[in-house]
Here is the input.
Amino acid sequence: MIAPVAYIMKDLSWRYLYLVLSLMTIHSLLGFWTFDESVRWLLSNGKIQQAKTLLKKAAKMNKVNEMEVFHLVDKTTPMILAAKEPMTEQGESDIDDAKKEKRKEIILEQPQTILPKYTVLTLFTRRRLAMITVIMTYTWTVNSLTYYGLSLSSASLPLDRFLSFFLLSIAELPIPVIEYFTFNRLGRKKLCIIFHAVAAVALIAGTVANYLSDRKGADIAVMVFYFLGKLGIAGSFSTLFLFTPELYPTNLRNVGIGFASAAGRIGGMLAPFAGPLAERVNWAPGAIFGTICLTVLVLLPLLPEPTGHELPTTVEELERWYKQHSGVKGKKKIDNSL
Here is the structure.
């Protein structure tokens, strides 16, 4: 929507444009009343009835027997509440002895799985874990630089700057449809590689066409190749949001994607320089973007494919999984212990 709104308001101050674009997102406030709360949070805070209401709705949507779900809730809730129940000055629980003994019995019946606590430093303490982090950090930086760089340098393309920006923007629309049909069939890693390959080849071809801009039909070729380049990099960027956290064990998942995403902002900070560079050398941004996308194609095959495999819980499981399924070798039968 930015391109048509900006075109309509091109004779007004950018402040009015910014105000209109901001107001266009005001509908997100409705989420306060429409979004559901986290079931895990509700259970851990003793809001059992609200949690069951949400689980009943989820069970109906997914065609699951709600009674089986409620049985699990009734079985695990005392464990959660027992860990949170307040203690009196005498060190005794405020609940009566019968309930306390019942909760103790339930807790003792459950397998005790205590996961170690990890920090951001853990990402670099193991060789395979560090390799995943380095590759994903570089990939996020390349994606951020290329994605935003293409948008910010669109004014240097042969067509009107509003139309060029609009065409590069609608290049992202086919991505959800493509991912819907290919995510589980091809897998995250293969799809990410394909998207990067499309972006790399298209941007390099677009650079050649831009360099030969005095030839007949070169302008159309430039727009077509840059359109495909934006489609490819937008698709890979979208895939990374799902691919990255699945490469890390449970207690490192948020840290892993957070670190990679934060590092990717480096690319976002460099992206504004693509516009001034294009004004001096119009083919340079496409050449840079296409080249760095090619380097990602060399690194991604070194990572394991998470599709169809149970995600690792600990760093040790991750290392076994990485050893068995990383690289360009054929898939091996997954270890049942994962």
